[in-house]
Amino acid sequence: MTDGDRYRLDKRRVRATFDRAAAGYDAAAPLQHEICDRLLERLDWVKLAPRHILDAGTGTGRGARGLRRRYPRARLLGLDLSLAMLRRARRQSGWWRRPDWVCADLEGLPLADASLDLLFSSLALQWCNDLERTLRGFRRVLAPGGLLMFTTFGPDTLKELRAAWQAADADHVHVNVFMDMHDIGDALVRAGFADPVMDMEMVTVTYPDLGRLLADLRAIGATNANAGRERGLTTRARLRTVESAYDAFRLSDDRLPATYEVIYGHAWAPEIPAAGPAGRPEGHIPILPRS
Predict the structure, then answer these.
(1) Percentages helix, strand, coil for the chain, rounded to the nearest 5?
(2) How far is CA 284 from the centre of its chain?
(3) How many other CB atoms are found less than 10 A from the CB of residue 60?
(4) Contacts of 11 (CB under 8 A, 6+ apart)
(5) What is the pLDDT of residues 124-148, one digit of tens each?
(6) Average pLDDT for the chain
(7) Chain centroid to CA 241: how far?
(8) Is residue 96 helix, strand or coil?
(9) What is the set of domains in the chain, with CATH numbers?
(10) In Å, how far from its chain's centre is CA 86?
(11) What radius of gyration do the chain's Cα atoms show?
């Protein structure tokens, strides 16, 4: 198995883990909520009156609810790979001008060409196997002058956990890999976007022990979905080795750090439409029933 194959995400496993996590996700995801809110705040810098908006990777719908408050007259779609997440988002969306919910993969958006004015995506791109294809799809569905705003995780995310697992088991993949900010910027240009802007911040969350960190990752569905993961249960002896290796990172207050490299980006669809094959007509969008 090549390195590329080892780190390829199993989308069926990704969907299943997020389906299982849906009921308790909001209680376990303060970091994800904070990052989503910070991305929403960045819309204050932009003069935009979108008529059609997509929240790509909406999860339980926090981004969609923020977008609805900000742009109450727009038609809003919330898209996610997990049906259980979408059902929870729908229950929490209120009754007035509710979004439509689309169960689909970001890597193959079932939307018409040039059908969106704003594509918003918080912490979803890291679950895509082919970033180039995903960004080309984003570019295709954005109308001329449309805006893409996103966050994702960079390569230093969970670096302590990755190092600890590497010390215990170098033969298998235990932590996802994340793309560098500059590589994402280059991919945006290749996908046909204009004026990409990227920046990054480091966020550290601390835990009393490794068990609490692993429990939080399971609770939000962020489990190992790589093809090169170890099959079966981890032995207690190996887990003790991971714990011992992680202890090398323990802070002065006796807590364990978990680092997250948060990447923020935005880019515009050029005013001149991109040439290419026609997209799916809007009538083919698979939308969940409202009730």
Answers:
(1) 40, 20, 35
(2) 24
(3) 29
(4) 81, 105, 129, 225
(5) 999 999 999 999 999 999 999 999 9
(6) 87
(7) 30
(8) coil
(9) 3-153+179-201+261-284 (3.40.50.150)
(10) 14
(11) 19
pLDDT tens digit sequence for 43-75:
999 999 999 999 999 999 999 999 999 999 999
- The token pair at 279 is 């997209």
Closest to 122 measured CA to CA, from 79, 83, 89: 79
Query: Does the pLDDT of residue 186 top 50, yes or no?
Result: yes
Q: Is 198 helix (H, G, I), strand (E, B) or coil?
A: strand
Which residues partner with 266 through β-bridges?
A: 149, 197
Q: CB of 185 within 8 A of CB of 265?
A: yes
Q: Could you read off the pLDDT of 265-278 as tens digits, one per residue?
A: 999 999 875 555 44
Residue tagged 């705003």 (tokens): 149
Strand order from edge to edge, sheet including 75-80: 100-103, 75-80, 52-56, 116-122, 142-153, 256-268, 194-207
For residue 238, pLDDT beyond 60 = yes
- To the nearest 10°, the Cα dihedral for 249, 252, 255, 257? -40
Positive or negative: CA dihedral 164, 168, 171, 174: negative
- Give the pLDDT confidence of 82-109 residue by residue, as tens digits: 999 999 999 998 767 789 999 999 999 9
Transcribe 106-153 into DSSP letters: GGG----TT-EEEEEEES-GGG-S-HHHHHHHHHHHEEEEEEEEEEEE
The SS3 call for residue 268 is: strand
Angstrom CA distances, 272 to 32, 165, 194, stand at 35, 48, 11
Within 10 Å of residue 148's Cβ, how many Cβ atoms?
25
Closest-CA residue to 165 (of 226, 208, 117, 113)? 226
Rounded to two decimals, the pTM is: 0.88
DSSP letter string over 13-39?
Answer: HHHHHHHHHGGGHHHH-HHHHHHHHHH
